[in-house]
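Researcher: I'd like a candidate sequence for this fold, 339 residues long. If you have to choose between options at a position, lean toward the conservative one.
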């Protein structure tokens, strides 16, 4: 370090800090937020830490300095994290008559409170869904509306709220033979499920909406909030998410059917709750997607908090994230086939 110029010394110190934080973040999926909530907050910064370490690696490579070895080693150790952030391969898209198309979409109350100035957002969402015609549609922040007329679907919804009834819904082109809700205490969030029948197979579809972080990507108050308050608030939410995940997993382990889990986890693929819910399931984006796969409109870096997970009974034949700004979330859709 003595041979480095002053500017390089400053960059090297920043590099050490970013590399150390990224290495620390590798342990986060195994650390329960109830025990170390302040550490869990770091999971939100993992995409930024990955990008920073790549930039440091490129800088030292261009200046031909051996300091490049630090970020290179850290990125190699966490290669699965890097490829979970960005998929370099092309999207998989295999057409098959036995494919089941599954869409997940947080519709943000169909723009009820005019977060997006356009007047036709609700109709655009309905038109988009009608155009894509998913066999299964899982919605979060859904509200019933007579003008939201999705034809050809069976439906199960679970709603709460006084002034504005809203919640989760699952639409299915296949008959629903059973349905229910997993209530999360002291919150409007919950998980719902339906059992559908395709041919002679019964399939369980879950729609999971974990506690929200309360981060509005367009809200300038986020920039003004002190780091101490933000960490405290997010830590509290992550502890709630862990409790909600535990309730969901208790229900899930009693399911004897093949299953697909959709939802807005309000947390990243680097989090404890994602690891716990995913378990041995396959992440449709990881298996068949490409690019960043961002599902939430966050101005600082790409964030993937909406997921479709399927068990080993399915082959994943396709995945797509739709780049349409009709909500603060982007819809995702996968094609799966029963083995």
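Model: Candidate sequence:
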């Amino acid at each position: 370090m003595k041979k480095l110029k002053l500017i390089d010394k400053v960059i090297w110190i920043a590099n050490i800090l970013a590399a150390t934080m990224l290495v620390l973040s590798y342990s986060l999926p195994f650390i329960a937020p109830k025990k170390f909530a302040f550490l869990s907050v770091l999971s939100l910064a993992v995409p930024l830490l990955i990008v920073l370490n790549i930039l440091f690696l490129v800088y030292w490579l261009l200046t031909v300095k051996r300091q490049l070895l630090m970020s290179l080693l850290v990125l190699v150790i966490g290669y699965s994290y890097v490829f979970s952030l960005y998929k370099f391969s092309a999207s998989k898209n295999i057409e098959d008559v036995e494919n089941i198309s599954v869409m997940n979409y947080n519709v943000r109350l169909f723009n009820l409170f005019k977060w997006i100035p356009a007047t036709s957002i609700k109709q655009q969402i309905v038109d988009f869904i009608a155009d894509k015609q998913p066999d299964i549609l899982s919605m979060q922040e859904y509200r019933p509306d007579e003008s939201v007329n999705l034809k050809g679907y069976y439906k199960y919804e679970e709603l709460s709220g006084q002034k504005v009834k809203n919640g989760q819904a699952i639409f299915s082109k296949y008959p629903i033979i059973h349905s229910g809700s997993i209530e999360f205490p002291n919150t409007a969030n919950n998980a719902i499920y339906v059992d559908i029948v395709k041919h002679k197979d019964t399939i369980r579809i879950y729609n999971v909406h974990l506690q929200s972080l309360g981060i509005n990507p367009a809200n300038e108050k986020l920039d003004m909030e002190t780091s101490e308050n933000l960490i405290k608030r997010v830590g509290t939410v992550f502890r709630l998410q862990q409790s909600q995940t535990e309730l969901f997993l208790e229900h899930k382990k009693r399911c004897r059917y093949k299953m697909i889990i959709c939802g807005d986890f309000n947390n990243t693929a680097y989090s404890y709750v994602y690891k716990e819910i995913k378990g041995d399931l396959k992440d449709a984006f990881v298996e068949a997607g490409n690019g960043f796969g961002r599902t939430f409109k966050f101005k600082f870096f790409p964030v993937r908090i909406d997921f479709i997970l399927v068990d080993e009974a399915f082959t994943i034949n396709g995945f797509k994230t739709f780049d349409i700004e009709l909500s603060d979330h982007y819809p995702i859709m996968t094609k799966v086939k029963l083995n």
